Model the fold of this input.
Amino acid sequence: MARRSTASVFARAYERNLKALTKLTLRNSKRVAGQVTRAAAKQMKPPPGRGDWLSGMALGPAGARRYHLFRPAELQLAPGERLPLMVMLHGCGQTGRDFAISTRMNALAVRHRFLVLYPEQDRIAHPQGCWNWYERRSGKADAEAATLMAAVDQVCMLYPADRERVAVAGLSAGASMAALLATRYPARFRAVAMHSGVAPGAARSSATAIGAMRGRNVPPMPVTAVGKAIGAAAVFATLPPMLVLHGDGDAVVAPSNARHSAEVWAAAVGAVAGPVRAVKRGKRLPMRLTDYRRRGRALVVLCEIAQLGHAWSGGAARGLFSDPAGPDATRMVWAFAAAQFKAVAKG
Done:
């Protein structure tokens, strides 16, 4: 009897522990499921802005990539009218929605009547959501570039986007992918903006990418090396004008990449550097501007921002990789792109 009683006690204790463990597991599962649901709902929620947040998906050599298109509300288009398109490539750890909130590009789109495309990197393609701009040897970078172009083509087909007025801008890995897009498809873009990115041609693999981010692979390059750096085909094509923005306090991507990017691009388009201008607007961080001109036209503009870290300059407060203390990069990017659209229109 004593033996049966002891076994019964252990059985009841085991049953109680099993029930408690089951309840705890279910409670934690519900909590985790709730967190995942709320996070998914948050990402589905449109960012601020008076307009439509339209979802889409493009297929290309790199597979499928989601995107969102911001279309300003209450657009009154004239018959046959098409609008400029700004392509915005987010950085590592961000989503298109995060980038839209940080940059507030949608607010400018409402004011100036243009469309904004936010492609989304797939976490299967990169666990941190980085664009694979450096995987040139494997071909992954060019495949992603082609897939991004498929998204641009799809938007131009489905919505009133003007193929002759397309610009691309990006932050960090998005900046490097923006530069790759412009070198692979130079005729498709009227302007490109790199914010805190690695210089074109500085890396061709993950190992060399890390070195380039730290500034090890970006010495000053002579004109004869430009073809090797950004691709021989690009040297003989007309590259779009480039705006380069970078903080001199960036601890993630070495600031030396900024001047290197400007010099490589300027050499490719035959532009010459002018004097450095110190500019400070209100309470925002000061910056140094250098124009690289050809025949009086600034084809490359370098903006080096004092004390800014690895963040979108003038971005929304509390945003990921966003610093409101810097000059308004969003306005600068759009103003630069708009100037190139006008220059092309004038012929």
